[in-house]
Specification:
Helices cover 77% and strands 0% of the residues. The protein has five helices and no strands. The two termini are 13 Å apart.
């Protein structure tokens, strides 16, 4: 049996878990990222040395793709760590597709917020009077969901 169905199942578990936390609190717990990294290393190692190297390359590429945006304040640290873990599961080729479609989904959600006049909030509640809270989006959730979809599609 190949690693495709196992990767898909684990990514869906991570995607649903990360989505819950990211949509609710706009934060992905480090323990969830660590568990995902542990599972990602195990599945990558299941593919032998080449699978492990492909996973590590995906992890480094995933972190490198979002790190500049983190430094500019455009994304949070959980988003960077999430894309790195996604890269561990997908390797570089599906990582780039996940990143592209996740960015499209994030742009669509941002456009929806702009057009609807809704305000996104870091804590999921209403902004306090006199306190400006920067609008945020559940970007890690979108990245995980697109990666889970693409890995499932590739495994079928």
């Amino acid at each position: 049996m190949g690693t495709g169905p196992v990767k898909a199942l684990l990514l869906w578990i991570l995607a649903l878990s990360a989505s819950y936390f990211d949509f609710r609190w706009r934060k992905v717990p480090n323990l969830l990222i660590l568990a995902g990294a542990f599972c990602g290393v195990a599945v990558a190692a299941w593919g032998g040395t080449s699978g492990l190297l492909r996973g590590v390359y995906g992890l480094l590429l995933g972190a490198a793709l979002l790190f500049p945006f983190f430094l500019l304040g455009g994304v949070g640290g959980g988003d960077v760590k999430s894309l790195a873990v996604i890269g561990l599961f997908t390797g570089p080729s599906l990582l780039l597709a996940s990143f592209f479609w996740g960015a499209c989904a994030g742009g669509g959600m941002a456009l929806f917020y702009l057009l609807s006049g809704r305000k996104a909030n870091r804590k999921g509640g209403l902004p306090r009077p006199g306190k400006a809270t920067p609008p945020t989006l559940p970007y890690a959730a979108l990245l995980f969901l697109t990666a889970a979809f693409l890995v499932t599609r590739a495994a079928i």
